[in-house]
Amino acid sequence: MSSRLFALSFDAREPERLARFWAALLDLEAADEPYDGVLLRSGNDAGYRLGFRPSPARKTGQNRLHFDLTSSSPDDQRETVARALELGGRHCDVGQGPDASHVVLADPEGNEFCVIEPGNAFLAGCGRIGALACDGSQAVGYFWSEALGWPLVWDQDEETAVQSPAGGTKITWGGPPLMPDPGRDLHLDLAPDGGREAEVERLLALGAKRLDTAHGGDGAVLLADPDGNVFRVLAGPRD
After folding, report:
1. What pLDDT score was predicted for residue 52?
2. CATH code given to domain 3-173
3. Alpha carbon 138 to chain centroid, angstroms
4. For a surface tag, which of 40, 44, 165, 170 has the fewest beta carbons within 10 Å of its beta carbon?
5. pTM score above 0.85
6. What angle do CA 179, 113, 109 make, to 5 degrees?
7. In this structure, are residues 40 and 223 in contact, taking their beta carbons and an 8 Å threshold?
């Protein structure tokens, strides 16, 4: 049994508006598939979608998860920043300092993301969404490697990263200490290759925790990874 990464999902006050921002920024198309919210095709070799789900949660701090967008040239980096600002994004200070070569922005609902300078070797070939950068422990990196069947491509000084065997976006974890739970964040939506309940049991055995005996709004099972980050297991083909 295993799961594939179906979507990277944003908590959103206005899912349609937030989806329009990311679609325009990254030239993404809508995905016409059943989902409890709005879906965009990521256009990435990793094969996932971007999801935007309604959430009443309030954002109380910096997200634990954020996108690192790649640039092909200095002009491309500047153009991405300018486009984000025109679409309703804003500059954001997360302590990066005035000499940082990357640019930190926030989307219209305050979700932080970075526009990385050109020539970043670690993100080379990963696509426009080069990384989902996560605040998290080494143990949670190991958990997600097993959960997704994605090999570790970095494991050093408590920092880890995984990547789909097909390539595309890397998922990275920066090591301790963990930031507080921000309330509203990004989440992983998993689609089991087989039956959902069997996959839930496998994930629990790997170190996940069941959050509620009830299902999520669209029938998804809500779990938390070893660092306490909420994720969802959707229905599988055998359900």
Report:
1. 98
2. 3.10.180.10
3. 17
4. 165
5. yes
6. 85
7. no
